[in-house]
Specification:
By secondary structure, the protein is of the alpha/beta class. It folds into two domains: about 90 residues, no CATH class; about 200 residues, 2-Layer Sandwich (60s Ribosomal Protein L30, Chain: A), CATH 3.30.1330. It is built from ten helices and six strands. It is elongated and about 130 Å long. The chain starts with 14 loop residues before the first helix and ends with a strand.
């Protein structure tokens, strides 16, 4: 006798398999969202402190006296992160963010303030005639020598009448081991003559001429100096009036930071003596005068890096 086949049982619960997979994936998705939202605030705090200390070294942010426990095991709230000023933690951060060589320290800032006052006193006649301007720029102290007082129009030759003012500037800078960047600038009027093809050539030539003068006449160490020509692309005023264009035609002496004394072990003659009245041209020592007027052998090449950067 044949067995009667049982009717197949319909499984109406197979949807549970797909549902379980969906729930598992949804759970994994929310776990990933949760884990990505839980940032290690302590590590973020250390990173923020390192960045802030770096900007403080550059003088961008003011110093803070609030210390935070970056070594604590507890997470540090991000909004309470402040710069660390105690020596131990600053030393640890120094390994992460080394001190910038171009940054001016507190002592240098004080010395530059004193130097600025001395320059303004020594160059008072030229400042009143708008031939010189002494300002604080982004990179340091800036002494702007305008064309009207120091150069002939369209020429890189220094005026003989400006020697007195330049002597005073050189005398004040000679004994201070600051690095100097000489920057040539022009207005937006194009130039083309037998000497210069354009404003790039003129601005670079004027900057290089002052560098050569500082090296050969005033015995500045070449390691302290650099030259750059910017043509008309770094104006201090709009080139819309003759007065503004006159301000843009200038050579800036930018004092950017100290030079290591080990780099200044160079046989230099005595610096110019101080002018007795602050206005007369300082007289160089006999040895310095002889060396500047009749050099024993012209240098084969003067290490003056000249950059003419277009922007």
């Amino acid at each position: 006798m044949r067995r009667r086949r049982r009717a197949p049982h319909a499984n109406h619960e197979r949807w549970l398999v797909s549902y379980a997979d969906f729930i598992t994936l949804l759970f994994a998705f929310f776990v990933v969202l949760y884990s990505s939202s839980q940032v290690d605030k302590r590590k973020v705090g250390k990173l923020a402190v390192a960045i802030q200390v770096a900007f403080q070294e550059l003088g961008v942010f003011p110093a803070s006296s609030t210390a935070i426990p970056v070594e604590s095991q507890e997470p540090v709230p991000f909004n309470t992160v402040q710069a660390i000023e105690n020596a131990e933690r600053t030393a640890e951060l120094g390994k992460i963010v080394p001190k910038s060589k171009g940054a001016l320290g507190t002592s240098e800032n004080g010395d530059l303030s004193s130097l600025r006052q001395e320059l303004e006193d020594a160059l008072a006649p030229e400042i009143r005639k708008n031939e010189v301007a002494v300002t604080i720029g982004r990179d340091g102290l800036v002494v702007s020598l305008r064309e009207v007082g120091f150069f002939e129009s369209g020429s890189a030759k220094v005026r003989a009448s400006s020697q007195s003012a330049f002597n005073r500037i050189a005398w004040l800078l000679a004994e201070r081991p600051y690095r100097l960047r000489i920057e040539g600038h022009t207005d937006n009027k194009p130039i083309h003559n037998t000497q210069f093809q354009d404003n790039w050539d003129l601005s670079a030539a004027r900057a290089t001429e002052l560098v050569r003068l500082l090296i050969m006449k005033y015995n500045f160490a070449p390691e302290r100096l650099s030259a750059a020509g910017y043509a008309e692309y770094h104006p201090v005023a709009e080139n819309d009036t003759e007065e503004n264009r006159a301000q843009n035609r200038r050579v800036d002496v930018v004092i950017v930071g100290r030079t290591s004394l080990n780099k200044l072990n160079r046989a230099e003659a005595s610096p110019p003596t101080a002018p007795p009245d602050g206005n007369a041209s300082p007289q160089a020592s006999p040895a310095s005068a002889a060396a500047s007027s009749v050099p024993s052998k012209p240098p084969a090449a003067i290490p003056v890096p000249v950059s003419t950067q277009r922007q």
